[in-house]
Specification:
heterotrimer, A mainly alpha, B mainly alpha, C alpha/beta, B: mainly alpha, MetI-like fold, 74% helix, flat, C: alpha/beta, D-Maltodextrin-Binding Protein, domain 2, four-stranded mixed β-sheet, 15 strands, 51% helix, globular, Sugar transport system permease protein (chain A), MetI-like_sf (chain A), transmembrane (chain A), transmembrane helix (chain A), sugar transport (chain A)
C-alpha cells in the first residue's frame, strides 16, 4: 500500500527521506566497497598504506590468483574446483528442504490432525538449536549411515536443519490460502496429492522463492558443517575460502583474500539481486501475514 | 491398490493416512537429529567427557564449574546486551527504511537489493572488511583524520567496555535490510480501503501509522522477532571474525564459549553444560511465545 | 552396569569403526598449512610420495593455528572416517595416543634411526609409552625478537642483551615517536609474549616449574608477580590499537619502520623476507633479552591414525619421507622454522635460520629446550586456555600483577 497522503508531505520531508535512504545505502555498501577496492590493489599498497584509499596501481592479478592459481592446501588450484562441490551440495539440499517444507506446510494447514500444532512447534523450535552442539553426535550418525565425508551426507545435514524454517514459511503461506477451495476439491473426490499439485502448488511461486533464497543463503554460506562433515573431495567453497584467508603462519595476501571472498559470495549475491524482487513479493503474499 | 479400489472404505482409510505419512519423515528426522541430540547433550553435561564423549557420570560437577567461571558470566551478560540492542536496532531501522521506501520512492528497485544484500554474505567474507573499517588505526577514524577531522574518535573495537557494541553494529548491518523486506511486504499487504476510510476521517500521516498501520504489521513484527532471536542466539561467526572474543575476553558470547570449551579446550562436559543452559534459556523465552502464537491461530 | 558402560566407551567403538577404512594406495592428509608458501612447501612431500606411487588426498583445514583442524579431526574420527595422517601439536598428540587412536611407528623409527637425532624435549611428544606415534617436521622457536635495523641505527640503539637494556631501548624509541613494540592483542600472541617474559624473569627452572609442572607455589609467587609487572611494562610500549591485530600486520609495522621490535616466533621471518629485506642486514633476529641460551619451541608433527592394528606401508612411507633430511631442509627453508632433526646441514639457511639451528642444538644439549606454553607444548589445552584467559585479561588491564598471579593459580587449578 502507499499512503495517499505521501504527496501531501512537504518537499523538505521528502528530501530528508531521500537523504536517509541514501545514507543507509552508503552504510550497507561500505564493507563491500572496502573489499572491492582492496582486491584491486597490489599487496604492498595494502600493508604499507591506507586501506580505505583508492588503489594507486590498479591490478586484476589478485582476481586471477584467487580463481585459478592461489595455493589452497598443497595444490595451487584457486577456488574454482570447490564451486562444483558447493553446487552439488546446495542444489539438492535446497530442493529437498523446499519440497518437504511445502508438503509439511500443506499437511499442517489443510489436513489438520490431533497434535499437529505440537509437531509444528517442535519443528519451529528446532530452528533455535545452536549447530555447534550437534557436531559430534551428527558425525557419529553419518558414520553409522555410511555417509561420513560424502556430499549426500552434507545434503542430509542441511536438509534436516533447514526443514524447520521451510515448514514455517509454507505453513504461514498456506494458512492464508482459502481452505474452501481445498474442501471443494475434496468433495469432488480429489486426493491428497492432486489437491496439492493442482490447487496449492500453482499459486506457491512467491513462497517458493522465499524458501529457496533463505535456504541457499544458509547452505551456500555454511562453514561449520562443510568443514566438519566433508571429505578431501567434497569440501565446499566456504571451506576453501577459509583455507585461503585463515592460514595460520603464512604471508597474508589480503588482496587475493578479498577477491576470493567476492567470488565465493557471487552466487548468493546474484540470487539476491535477481530474485530480490520475488523475495519481497513472496514475503508479502504470506509469510509475514500469518 | 487394485484390491483397495474394490473396497472404498479401505481407500478412504488409506487416504486419511497419507498426510501423516508425508509429514512423518520430516518429523522423525527432526525428532532424532534435533531432540535426540539435545538429550545426548544433556547426558554429556553430567559426564566427565573431555576430548571425546565419555559415559562416566559425575553429576552436577560441570555445572558448578561453569558457574565458577567469570568468563561464562561475561558471555551471558554479553548475550543479553547484544540480543536486546541487536533486535531493537534491526527492527527500528528495518521499519524506518520500509516506511520510507513505501513513499513512492524513485529508485526503489536499486535501493532494495542494496539494503538486502548483506544477508547474502557470510562473515568469513565480510569479517575482515568490518575489522579494518572499525580499527581506529586504519579504518574510519584514520580516514577522518586524513580528511582533516583530527578530533574524530571511533575506537570502540579496541575498548573492553565498548567492543560488544561494534558487534551489534555489524550484526545490524547484516540483517536490518532483511527485516526491512519483511516490513515492506507487510506494508504492501495492508488493505488500501481501510486507509482511505481513515484518511476521510481526517487522520494525519502520523496517526495513520500509529493507529492503523503499525497494529496491522503485528505478524511482521512476530516473524522478525523469531528470525532475529534465532540469529542473535546463534551469533558465532560474527564474533570470531570481528573481535575473536576480545579485547581480553570482553566480547565472548555463549555460542563462542560453548564452542571453545567443547573443541578448543577439550572440556566437552563443561561445553555441554553451557549448551544445556543456553537451550533452557531459549526455551524459557520461546516456548511461551510459540504457545501463545499457535494457540491463537487455532482459535 | 559398569561393564556395560565400559563396553560402550566410545573410543573402543570408534577404533572398531576406524579399522579397515584405509584406502588402498592413497594417504589422506589433514593439515592446516593451507595457503601461500607453507602449502607450496608441503607439495615437496606430496611429490616425494608420488614418486613412490602413493597418491595424496589433500584435506586442508585452516583456522586458529590448528584448532579448527582438531575439531574436524574429532568429527572425522567419531564418524569412523579418520584421515590417514594428521598434522598435530604437543598435547593433542598425547591426548589422541591416550585414546589408543594412533599407529605405532617404532619399526619405521628403528629402521631410519630417529632416536639419536631428535631432541629429547620433542621426543617427549613424538613418543607415548615408549612408542613412536608421530614424526616431527620442524621446530619453531618462539622466543625471537625481530627488529628493523635502520630504525635501531637511526636511534643509536644496540641490540639489547638484557631486560634493562631492552626497556631502555624501547624508551628511546618512544621518545623518538616510534612505537617501540609491535604487537597484536590476540590471546595466543599475548601468551607468546608471556612465555618469553616468564623465561626471562625467572630463568629456565622457574619456567619449567610454573608453566610445565604447574607448581601452584611458582604460579602464585613473587617471581610471577614480577613477570606480570614486566608484561605491564611491555603493554606501555605497545600502541593503543593493538587489540585484535593479526601478527603479520604487527610485522608490517616493523617492516615499514613504524615500530622498532616485534616479539614473535620464527614464522615472522617470511613476512620480512617477503618484503624484500635481508636477514641480519635490514632486519635483525635475536633471542628475547634474558632468554639467550634457552629455546621455547613449537613443533609440527604428523601422527598416523591406526587403521587396523599396524602401520600401513603408505603410512610408513609417509613418516619416512617426513623425516628424510632432504625434506626437512627443503620444507624448513621455506617455512622459516628449523629441522626437527639436529643432524642436517644448515648450508641452505639464512643468517637467522643458521642461528636458530645452532641455538636448538645447543639448547637440546644443555637441557634448556622448553615446550612453549602458548603453543600447546607445555600443558594440555584446557590449562593452556585457562592461562590465556588470565594473561590476556591482565594485559588488557583487568587485573594488577598481584591479582593476576593469584588468578593464574586459581584458573589452573579449576582447569586441571
Amino acid at each position: 500500500m502507499t499512503v495517499e497522503g505521501a504527496s501531501r508531505t512537504g518537499h523538505a520531508a521528502r528530501a530528508l527521506i531521500y537523504l536517509v535512504l541514501l545514507l543507509f545505502a552508503l552504510f550497507y555498501l561500505l564493507p563491500f566497497g572496502i573489499m572491492v577496492i582492496n582486491s584491486l590493489k597490489p599487496l604492498s599498497e595494502i600493508t604499507g598504506g591506507n586501506m580505505m584509499a583508492l588503489p594507486r596501481t590498479w591490478t586484476l592479478e589478485p582476481w586471477r590468483a584467487a580463481w585459478s592459481t592461489a595455493q589452497i592446501g598443497v595444490s595451487p588450484t584457486g577456488l574454482a574446483p570447490y564451486f562444483w562441490n558447493s553446487i552439488k551440495m546446495a542444489v539438492p539440499a535446497v530442493a529437498l528442504s523446499t519440497i518437504f517444507g511445502a508438503v509439511n506446510g500443506y499437511v499442517l494447514t489443510k489436513w489438520r490432525f490431533r497434535g499437529d500444532t505440537l509437531i509444528f512447534g517442535l519443528m519451529l523450535f528446532s530452528c533455535f538449536i545452536p549447530f555447534q552442539i550437534v557436531l559430534i553426535p551428527m558425525a557419529r550418525s553419518l558414520g553409522i549411515l555410511g555417509l561420513a565425508g560424502t556430499t549426500p551426507g552434507l545434503v542430509l545435514v542441511h536438509f534436516v536443519y533447514g526443514i524447520g524454517f521451510t515448514t514455517l514459511y509454507f505453513r504461514n503461506y498456506y494458512a492464508a490460502f482459502p481452505t474452501e477451495l481445498v474442501r471443494a476439491a475434496m468433495i469432488d473426490g480429489a486426493g491428497f496429492f492432486r489437491i496439492f499439485w493442482r490447487i496449492l502448488l500453482p499459486s506457491s511461486g512467491p513462497i517458493i522463492a522465499v524458501s529457496v533464497i533463505w535456504q541457499i543463503t544458509n547452505i551456500w554460506n555454511d562453514f561449520l558443517f562443510g568443514t566438519s562433515f566433508a571429505d578431501f573431495d567434497s569440501q565446499p567453497v566456504t571451506v576453501a575460502l577459509n583455507n585461503l584467508v585463515n592460514s595460520s603462519t603464512g604471508v597474508k595476501e589480503y588482496n587475493v583474500h578479498f577477491a576470493g571472498a567476492i567470488y565465493a559470495a557471487l552466487p548468493t549475491l546474484l540470487v539476491y539481486v535477481v530474485a530480490g524482487r520475488y523475495f519481497v513479493r513472496g514475503l508479502m503474499s504470506g509469510s509475514v501475514k500469518g | 491398490m487394485n484390491a483397495a479400489r474394490h473396497r472404498p472404505d479401505r481407500l478412504t482409510r488409506l487416504q486419511s493416512l497419507v498426510p501423516g505419512l508425508m509429514l512423518a519423515p520430516s518429523a522423525a528426522l527432526v525428532l532424532l537429529f534435533v531432540y535426540g541430540f539435545i538429550l545426548f547433550t544433556i547426558y554429556l553435561s553430567f559426564t566427565d567427557s573431555r576430548i571425546l564423549p565419555s559415559y562416566d557420570w559425575i553429576g552436577l560437577e560441570n555445572y558448578s564449574k561453569l558457574f565458577r567461571l567469570s568468563h561464562w558470566t561475561t558471555a551471558v551478560v554479553n548475550l543479553g546486551v547484544f540480543a536486546a540492542l541487536y533486535m531493537a536496532f534491526s527492527t527500528a531501522i528495518g521499519l524506518m527504511l520500509a516506511i520510507f521506501l513505501d513513499q513512492k520512492i524513485r529508485g526503489e528497485g536499486v535501493l532494495r537489493p542494496i539494503y538486502l544484500y548483506p544477508m547474502a554474505l557470510s562473515f568469513i567474507v565480510t569479517g575482515t572488511a568490518w575489522k579494518w573499517f572499525l580499527d581506529p588505526g586504519i579504518g574510519l577514524e584514520h580516514t577522518m583524520h586524513l580528511w582533516g577531522w583530527e578530533s574524530f574518535r571511533f575506537g570502540w573495537i579496541k575498548d573492553r567496555d565498548f567492543a560488544i557494541y561494534t558487534v551489534v553494529i555489524a550484526a545490524v548491518w547484516q540483517t536490518s535490510g532483511f527485516v526491512m523486506a519483511m516490513f515492506l511486504a507487510g506494508l504492501r499487504g495492508i488493505d488500501g480501503e481501510i486507509l482511505k476510510a481513515a484518511q476521510m476521517d481526517g487522520a494525519n500521516s502520523w496517526n495513520l501509522y500509529r493507529r492503523i498501520i503499525l497494529p496491522q504489521l503485528r505478524p511482521a513484527f512476530l516473524s522478525a522477532f523469531v528470525i532475529l532471536a534465532h540469529l542473535a542466539v546463534k551469533s558465532y561467526d560474527l564474533v570470531i571474525a570481528l573481535t575473536g572474543g576480545g579485547p581480553g575476553r570482553a566480547t565472548e558470547l555463549p555460542a563462542t564459549f560453548m564452542y571453545s570449551y567443547t573443541f578448543s579446550r577439550n572440556q566437552m562436559g563443561i561445553g555441554a553444560a553451557s549448551a544445556v543452559i543456553m537451550l533452557m534459556t531459549i526455551a524459557a523465552i520461546m516456548v511461551p511465545y510459540l504457545y501463545a502464537e499457535l494457540r491463537e491461530k487455532k482459535a | 552396569m559398569n561393564a556395560i558402560a565400559r563396553g560402550l566407551k566410545v573410543s573402543t567403538a570408534i577404533l572398531a569403526l576406524t579399522a579397515g577404512i584405509a584406502a588402498a594406495q592413497d594417504v589422506e592428509v589433514l593439515h592446516w598449512w593451507t595457503a601461500g608458501g607453507e602449502a607450496a612447501a608441503l607439495n615437496v612431500l606430496k611429490e616425494d610420495l608420488a614418486a613412490q606411487g602413493i597418491g595424496w588426498e589433500d584435506m586442508p583445514v585452516a583456522g586458529g593455528g590448528g584448532e579448527q583442524a582438531m575439531t574436524v579431526l574429532r568429527a572425522r574420527v567419531t564418524s569412523g572416517n579418520s584421515p590417514t595422517a594428521v598434522q598435530m601439536l604437543g598435547f593433542d598428540i598425547t591426548d589422541w595416543a591416550r585414546e589408543g587412536a594412533l599407529a605405532n611407528l617404532n619399526p619405521v623409527a628403528e629402521e631410519n634411526g630417529w632416536e639419536p637425532v631428535v631432541p629429547d624435549a620433542i621426543k617427549a611428544f613424538s613418543k607415548y609409552d615408549g612408542e613412536w606415534i608421530a614424526a616431527p617436521v620442524n621446530v619453531h622457536s618462539t622466543n625471537w625478537v625481530w627488529a628493523n635495523a635502520d630504525v635501531l641505527e637511526e636511534n643509536g640503539i644496540e641490540q639489547p642483551e638484557t631486560w634493562d637494556e631492552f626497556v631502555t631501548a624501547m624508551e628511546t624509541l618512544q621518545e623518538a615517536g616510534i612505537t617501540p613494540l609491535a604487537h597484536g592483542g590476540q590471546p595466543w600472541q599475548d601468551a607468546t609474549l608471556f612465555d618469553a617474559v616468564v623465561l626471562s624473569t625467572g630463568g629456565g627452572d622457574f619456567y619449567k616449574a610454573a608453566l610445565i609442572d604447574l607448581d601452584p607455589e611458582a604460579l602464585n609467587s613473587d617471581t610471577m608477580v614480577e613477570a606480570f609487572e614486566r608484561m605491564a611494562t611491555l603493554r606501555g610500549f605497545v600502541d593503543d590499537n593493538f587489540s585484535g591485530r593479526d601478527w603479520n600486520l604487527a610485522s608490517a609495522m616493523v617492516i615499514n619502520g613504524e615500530a622498532g621490535f616485534q616479539m614473535m616466533g620464527d614464522w615472522a621471518k617470511g613476512e620480512f623476507l617477503g618484503a624484500g629485506m635481508t636477514e641480519g642486514e635490514d632486519f635483525l633476529c635475536f633471542r628475547f633479552p634474558g632468554t639467550q641460551g634457552s629455546v621455547t619451541f613449537n613443533a609440527d608433527q604428523f601422527a598416523m591414525f591406526d587403521q587396523g592394528g599396524e602401520v600401513s606401508p603408505q603410512q610408513a612411507a609417509f613418516a619416512q619421507a617426513v623425516m628424510s633430511p632432504e625434506f626437512q631442509v627443503a620444507f624448513n627453508v621455506v617455512k622459516g622454522s628449523v629441522p626437527a632433526r639436529t643432524d642436517v646441514s644448515d648450508e641452505e639457511f639464512g643468517a637467522c635460520g643458521k642461528k636458530g639451528m645452532a641455538d636448538l642444538a645447543q639448547a637440546a644439549a644443555d637441557g634448556t629446550l622448553y615446550g612453549s606454553m602458548a603453543h600447546g607444548y607445555a600443558v594440555p589445552a584446557s590449562v593452556k586456555n585457562a592461562i590465556f584467559d588470565v594473561v590476556t585479561a591482565h594485559f588488557n588491564g583487568e587485573f594488577d600483577a598481584q591479582t593476576a598471579a593469584e588468578e593464574l593459580a586459581t584458573a589452573v587449578e579449576i582447569a586441571q
